[in-house]
Amino acid sequence: MLKIEPTGAVLGATVHGLDLSSPVSDRDFGRVLNALGAHGVLHFPDMHFEIDEFQAFSLRFGDIQGQPVPGQTVIDKAYGGVGTLSNLKENGQYIGAAYAGQDWHTDMSYRETMGFVNLLYGIRIPRRDGKPLGGTEFSNMHAAHDALPEDLKARLTGMTASHSFEKFWEHMRVDKGADRPPMTDEQRRARPPVTHPLFLTHPISGRKVLYCNPGYTTRINELPPDESDRTLNLLFEHQLEMRFRHTHHWTEHDLIIWDHIGTIHRAIDDYGPDDIRLMRRCQIMANKVFDPAFLQLARAAA
Ligand code: OGA
Ligand code: MN
User: Fold this and answer.
1) Which residue among 76, 260, 281 is best mutated to probe the pocket of ligand 1, counting the most ligand atoms within 8 A of its Cβ?
2) Model's pTM, two decimal places?
3) Which domain holds residue 168?
4) Which atom of ligand 1 is the closest one to the Cα of 136?
5) Residues with a CB atom less than 6 Å from ligand 1
6) Which residue from 35, 89, 222, 297 has the highest number of Cβ atoms inside 10 Å of its Cβ?
7) Atom of ligand 1 at shortest distance to CA of 97?
């Protein structure tokens, strides 16, 4: 029997009683879905599982994302789509994806089929003076939507935004000194900007969320460029107000599952190259979560 305990903060809940060593029942899976819609980020402490159990559970949420861009040179010792996120190097090369989203973003908002959840499992957590480093910070986009001034909400209703992979790629490359070349024309063609509604109805909560993020969102399509820039800057500032934010401080064997539709996130960059952080990760696309038959699992468990 799952026990779901809200953190009491603006988002997040701790979930006890999930066992991945046998298939999770539809009812428990439905309760996890509802908790994701309600709390955005779920923390499962002290989890122990085999990598194929992790993969099987991840696939319940949807398909695993392939490479963000074709030809990206990440030596990922992936296991059936289970990735590695770490600053560990072997023979001078990162063993997995290295730059853990160290600025605010939403995974896969730049894809036609957006991201639904990430499952991130902490194996090695850096510490200094006993305190964990490399936390993951989230901001609640249900709350950010609801707190928008009514006149702005009314004006932006029905509008759409463009999301571009290249925006974050260039930000990490140019502003953060990430060791990566500019995107090639071929990569650009493979990842053209995509459009999503600025206010989305969350498939599980049924409530509106603000769907934009500083990492990938480039334009409000229905506004002239300068007004789009001004409005986006205002939305970015609004969605990062401290009242919407909550940080997860990691412990080894934590599993975190978060909802990309109702939150934005960043990795906190407060540790050095010798402070080792090692995570296993599945990035799951929203190819199932808008499907009524899938949502029935959540409804039946409500
Ligand atoms: C991610 C990500 C944050 C972290 O996995 O998409 O941004 O704290 N990770 O590692
Ligand atoms: Mn991310």
Assistant:
1) 281
2) 0.96
3) 3-301
4) 8
5) 85, 100-101, 107, 118, 120, 136, 265, 267, 281
6) 35
7) 5
Count of the separate structural domains present in the chain: 1
Antiparallel, parallel or unpaired: β 89-90 and 217-220: unpaired
CATH number at residue 244: 3.60.130.10
Print pLDDT tens along the chain (302 aa).
Answer: 899 999 999 999 999 999 999 999 999 999 999 999 999 999 999 999 999 999 999 999 999 987 777 766 555 666 778 988 988 888 887 877 766 677 999 999 999 999 999 999 999 999 999 999 999 999 999 999 999 999 999 999 999 999 999 999 888 888 888 778 899 999 899 899 999 999 999 999 999 999 999 999 999 999 999 999 999 999 999 999 999 999 999 999 999 999 999 999 999 989 988 899 999 999 999 999 999 999 999 999 99
C-alpha distances (whole Å) from 118 to each of 106, 110, 257 are 10, 15, 6
- Please tell me the number of the ligand nearest to residue 137's CA: 1
Q: Which atom of ligand 1 is nearest to the CA of 267?
A: 8
- Burial letters 77-87, b for 16+ CB under 10 A, else e: ebeebbbbbbb
CA nearest neighbour of 263 among 66, 116, 149, 58 = 116
Residue keyed to tokens 């991945």:
20
CA gap 97, 183 in Å, rounded? 17
